[in-house]
Structure formats: C-alpha cells, structure tokens
Design brief:
This protein has 32 helices and two strands. With 730 residues, the chain is mainly α. The chain has a two-stranded antiparallel sheet with strand order 1-2. A hairpin with a 2-residue loop joins strand 1 and strand 2. The longest helix has 33 residues. It is globular. It starts with a helix and ends with a helix.
C-alpha cells in the first residue's frame, strides 16, 4: 500500500503520453484509477484471507463493526463518504450518466475519479499510524516537484525537446507548463508542494539533503512565478498565511525551542523569506518581466479579460445550480450543459472555446452535484481543517509541524482551485495529505490509539485469494478505466491527423465505439466526413461522405441533445443532403429548414450556430432566412468576418454585384477567427463579383490571392481564366 501511494505521488505530476490532443490529464487520471484499483485488490485479498480463516459471515460482521468504529473516529472520512454518495446520486440522475461516470474526455473528473481519490484518502489515513508517513510523502512530492520544475526551466530557456502545440501565452511570451500540461496546473501543484519540500528540508539531517530540498524550493518558487498563474500565486500566499496561523493557534510548547535558540531561528526564517521573495521576483530580470508586472496588477483587477471570462463561467455554473438545485447537472457534466448557458459576451471574449470546468471548484461541485454535493464538500473541508488543528495541538513536535504543513498545502490547493480546478496531480496530493491529517487526529492521534481501530493482521492471503481479488479488480479496471483511456488516446491521436487522412476517420470511429458515452468523438467524426464531402471529386463520393456525417452527428445529438452546435451541424448536413433530391435516403428542403430553425432557437446567439444556419439556408436557396441569420451574427459579432462573407454571398445569389463587392471587401478587413480558411472563399467570391461588374484586373488579382490560399477553389480558377482571357483580348 505504501509503495503504491508513493509511486502515485511521484509519477502523477510527471507522466504524459504524446500522440493525442491532450497528452496529460487523461493519462494521469488513468494512473490514479489504476493505483486505486491496485489498492482495492490488496484490500480485497486481505478480506478474502480473513473470510477463509473466520468464515464469510463473521468476516462481514467484523468488517462492518470496524468500519462503523473507524468512521466514528474520523468525521472527515464520514463526510467524504457522504460526498461520494452525492457523486453517485448525481451520476445516476445526471443529464448523461455515462459521461458523469467516466468524466470528460480531456480532463476527466467523473465518478471514477472521485472513487479513486477517496481510495487514496483512506489508504493514507491508514498509513498515518506510521510516525514518518508524512515525511515519506514529502520526499516523493519533492522529487516530483524538482523534476517538474527542472522541465519547466528548460521550457523557459527554450530548450524543451518537445514542440508542444497550443501552449498558453501571455503578451506574446510562452508560459511554462512543465509536465502538467498547463501553467495554472503546474503553478497550483508547486504551490501545494512547497510546504512539503520545506518540511523535508527541516527534517533532513544531512547537509546535502537539506541543500537539495532548499534548492528545489527556490527553483519551484521561480517556476511558480514564471507560470504567470494568479490563482497559484494566491494559493502560495494562502499556504504561507495558513502555516503561520496554524502555528499561532496551536500555541507554543516547551519542547518547541529553547529560549536561546529563538533568535537564531527567527534569523533563519527571515533569510528564507528574503530568498523566497528574490526567487519569486527573478522573472523581472528576464524577457518575461513586463508580462510578470501586468499579471501582478491583474491579481486584483476584476476587468482583466481572463477574470471577466471566469465571471461568465461562474454565472453559468450558478444558473445550472438554479435549474437543478438538488443534485445538479451530474458529476463532471458542466461541459455538456455549458453551451446552453454560454452568452454572446463570452463568445466575444473566448470565441468558440468551450470548457468542461467552471474554473471554481465550489461552483463546479454546486453546478454538477447540487446543494447536496456542495454541502458535503464544505463539510469535508471544515472537518479536515479541524483535524489539522487538533493535530497541531499535540505534544509531539513532529505532528504539530506536520499539521501546519498539511494545512498549508491544502490551503494552497483550495485557493488555487477557487479560480481554476483540481486535476489528478493536485487532487491526489490533497487526498493523501488530508488522509494523513485525519489519521493522526483519530483517537488522540497516537500510533497505538490509531492501531486499535485497525483490523487485526490476518493470515497471509492464499494464492486463491490473490487470484480472485486480482481477477475481480482487473475485470472492473478493464471495463471502466481502459476503454476511457484508450478512447482518449486514439481519438486525440486521430485529431492530430489531416482531415483528408483516412486514418483520422478510422481513429475517431474506434474512439466513438470505445467510449459510446462521449459525444465529442462522434461530432468530430461528423465534421471530418462533412469536410471530405465538400472536397469530394464526384457526387457519389460526396453523398457517401454526407451519409457518414449525418450518422455521426445523429449519434452525437443522441448522446448530448443539450448541445446546440451538434444540432446545427446535423441540420447543416441535412441541408446539404436536400440538394440531392434524386438520392435514396435524402431529406426534404422543408425538413432541413425546420432543423436549422430549431438549432437557432436552441442557441440564438451562438456564433457557430448562426454561421451553420446561414450556410444551410444558403444551400437550400432560402435567401431571406439566410440573410436574417447572417445579419444577426454580424450585429452580435461586428469583428467577425464570416457573417459579412455570407451577406456578400447572398448579394451574389441575388445578382446585386456592387453590394456584394462592398460587403465582401468589408469582410476581408475583419477576423475569420477559427474559420480562417474561408478567407479564400471571400476573395474568390469578391473576384467573381468584380468579374460580373467588368472590373477584370481586380477580378484577376483577387482570384490569384484566393488561389494562394486554396489552389483548388473552383470559383477562383474560373474567374481567373475568364479575366485573363478578356484582358488578353483587349
């Protein structure tokens, strides 16, 4: 048990697997679940061994009695089980139980994750009987923090051997993320690890070990500053304040320090504080200095763009709670419902970015598990804090210092999660540290008192007991953990391939089959089929791809009917199929138009929905409806180029060529956002409008510009040929 927990703490911050669109969190969560499964197998083997020697009935009665006695002595553990029960109920009554069980594909935090973290808590609580368990935790965490910080420094110096795409930036500078995948996550982990690293430094007897721990602390503080994560900075500050507060509330004990040693100790503390401030301010002397100052100012700036974005997320979470107050939307179901609550203001700030987290752990729990879940969560926090205070008042010096360190680490986790969210590395560390505090607080906290609540040592499990335990747990692991992990890996790897690569469709189909609860893979499969349909060389191929797109989007809508973009995408496919009236299995233009109208009604201000509706109406020849949707998008998002492109395309259909030129020219001065490839279409249509107006040099030049962006654009090819023919004849 001890080895499993320490390996989890050591590896979780460092593990990543390249090849998918998220190389970090899905694999870390799979590792947490695997460790919990191993711990479960160990516990089950011991239970079976006890059943072999005592009988099944006696074993079950004894286990139940011990559990009741154990939970009476551990109020925090009882509250944690209440929270787990809330997770179970929220999963059962979720808007999508499958997604709540497994969690989202990119940052899973479903019932499986909650169960795994609960297992880590109780395992650490049991190991807390060992006086040096927290020291061993500190050693594992310090090694992991040193490795993570060293990798982040390599990134800071431009020496990262891996070229990550989509790295977080600020004012043009890349923010370091280390092996945790995001600067905010790395900063939160280092803020939690710092108290434990300093604990290790204070208890290490060798000079070399103490120097290594202090060097790790200094490096961690520098990297913490370089992440530019305001939430992590506040978490580190909360850790320092909490440590001092717990030490103060605990009061002095005679054994703490002799009077003659007080002054030297205060001097060392002042020196450490000065060194920490120096390490934190070191980014000022680097090219990141200006961004560092800006982020410092934004700590209290409620008008900072990222702060405003979070406020929108918090409002969405509170609105979800208001709509489903008792059990919430379902464990980790925030991302499923968020598109329904996403406002036009959020679109203008973050554009098409969606999220599966509220970026506030309390609001996330409230939105997904309702008042029952958030009440249980606050009860856990209160009782763990009480356990830390109880341990801090003990006679043993080690326990008192450990309690202050545990409280500081947990405070860093809580405060950093107030503007972000917990992940596998931070959540596991919080569970283990909280388990230690609860374990030391039980029955007076002494090892002997603690052991009296533990079961008597059974006989060594037999081979049959080991085999049965391994078989049961492995079966559960293979059916629950492996499919989700495999789907995330295969689907993520497929998304890294070109949309014309047949392996992309194959990978997404396998991911959708492995994770039938995850709508994302079906939606991405539908988008890939639709893109290939537009690029098809013949009607038969295009029709086949449209059929694949329709089937995939219908599956996505069945899985997540709350997502309006999936509905709009399906309606767009139906509009395309309606242009093939002679094909078996097609749809009528009326049905396609009804589907487009329903999608707009479900999300009347979503930019993607409005664009899809406009293009669908254009394909159906319903120009008035297309114009209405495009004008609505242009009013909501005046800097967005695509609505102006669509309005110009409508003018072309109506043979209003001068109006088309004016509108299409305006579109080229705006942002195409995530649809930058449509600039080629805008220039091709502008070239065609110039051609119809007899402005042949302009038509030729715009057609050439369009072909530089898309050499296969048919309207640009025809326009260039016609313009060059006319100009050559003049």
């Amino acid at each position: 048990m001890k080895i499993v927990l320490l390996l989890e703490l050591l590896l979780l911050p460092l593990v990543f697997v390249r090849g998918g669109d998220d190389a970090f969190e899905p694999h870390k969560v799979a590792l947490v679940a695997t460790g919990a499964a191993v711990l479960g197998a160990l516990a089950l083997a011991r239970l079976l061994a006890r059943a072999e020697s005592q009988g099944v009935g006696a074993t079950l009665r004894s286990a139940a009695a011990r559990s009741r006695r154990s939970l009476r002595n551990d109020p925090a553990g009882s509250a944690l089980l209440l929270f787990l029960a809330s997770s179970v109920l929220s999963t059962i009554f979720s808007v999508h139980s499958g997604a709540s069980l497994h969690g989202s594909s990119s940052r899973p935090a479903g019932l499986v994750t909650a169960l795994a973290l609960t297992t880590l808590y109780f395992a650490s609580r049991r190991l807390a009987a060992a006086p040096r368990w927290l020291d061993r935790v500190a050693l594992a965490v310090t090694i992991a923090a040193a490795a993570a910080a060293a990798y982040a420094v390599a990134q800071f110096l431009g020496l990262d051997p891996i070229g990550w795409s989509g790295a977080a930036t600020f004012e043009g500078k890349t923010r370091v993320s280390g092996p945790l995948g995001h600067p905010n996550t790395l900063g939160a982990y280092l803020a939690m690890a710092l108290p434990l690293t300093l604990l290790l430094a204070s208890r290490t007897r060798s000079l070399a070990g103490r120097a290594a721990a202090l060097a790790t602390a200094a490096l961690s503080i520098f990297v913490l500053a370089a992440t530019l994560s305001r939430g992590a900075w506040l978490g580190a500050a909360a850790a320092a304040v909490t440590f001092a507060a717990v030490r103060f509330l605990a009061g002095r004990r005679p054994a703490d320090a002799a009077p003659a040693a007080v002054a030297p100790r205060r001097g060392r503390i002042a020196l450490l504080v000065a060194a920490a401030l120096l390490a934190f301010l070191l980014p000022l002397a680097t090219p990141m200095g200006a961004g560092f100052v800006t982020r410092l100012r934004e700590v209290t700036d409620l008008n900072a763009p990222t702060t405003v974005s979070r406020i929108h997320l918090w409002r969405a979470g509170l609105a979800m709670l208001a709509d489903r107050p008792l059990l919430g939307a379902g464990t980790d179901a925030f991302g499923i419902l968020f598109p329904r609550y996403r406002t036009a203001e959020f679109w203008r700030l973050e554009w098409s970015a969606s999220t599966d987290k509220a970026h506030n752990e309390a609001i996330q729990i409230a939105a997904t598990q309702g008042v029952v879940g958030i009440a249980a969560a606050f009860l856990v926090v209160f009782l763990v804090a009480r356990a830390c205070l109880r341990v801090s008042r003990r006679e043993g010096v080690d326990d008192r210092l450990g309690a202050a360190v545990a409280a500081a680490s947990l405070a860093a986790w809580g405060v950093s999660s107030a503007t972000g969210f917990s992940v596998a590395a931070t959540g596991s560390l919080a569970a283990v540290v909280a388990g230690w505090a609860a374990g030391r607080a039980r029955d007076g906290g002494g090892a002997e008192d603690f052991r009296r609540t533990m079961p008597e040592s059974p006989a060594r499990p037999s081979l049959v007991a080991w085999a049965v335990a391994a078989l049961l747990v492995t079966g559960l692991w293979l059916s629950v953990v492996v499919p989700a992990w495999n789907a995330a890996f295969l689907g993520g790897r497929a998304l890294g391939l070109s949309e014309s690569d047949p392996r992309r469709i194959e990978g997404l189909e396998r991911a959708a089959a492995l994770a039938p609860w995850e709508a994302r893979w079906s939606a991405e499969l539908g988008r890939t089929h639709l893109t290939q349909a537009f690029a098809a060389t013949g009607p038969s191929e295009a029709w086949q791809r449209l059929g694949g797109a329709r089937g995939a989007y219908e599956r996505a809508v069945r899985i997540a009917p709350e997502n309006p973009e999936y509905r709009a995408s399906l309606a767009r496919v139906l509009a395309e199929q309606a242009s093939y009236p002679d094909r078996t299995g097609g749809v009528s233009p009326r049905d396609a138009a009804s589907a487009l109208a329903a999608a707009m009604e479900a999300d009347p201000h979503g930019a993607n929905v409005l664009v899809l509706a406009t293009q669908g109406y254009l394909r159906l020849g319903r120009l008035d409806d297309a114009h209405h949707a495009a004008c609505r998008a242009a009013r909501l998002y005046p800097d967005f180029a695509v609505p102006m492109l669509d309005i110009g395309s409508i003018a072309l259909e109506e043979e209003r060529y001068q109006a088309a030129v004016d509108t299409l020219y305006l579109s080229l001065g705006r942002s195409f956002r995530d649809a930058s490839w449509m600039e080629a279409t805008a220039r091709g249509n502008l070239a065609y409008a110039y051609l119809q107006l007899g402005r042949y040099p302009y038509a030729r030049d715009e057609a050439m510009r369009a072909l530089l962006l898309d050499p296969r654009l048919e309207v640009a090819l025809r326009t260039r040929e016609e313009a060059e023919r006319v100009l050559a004849s003049q």
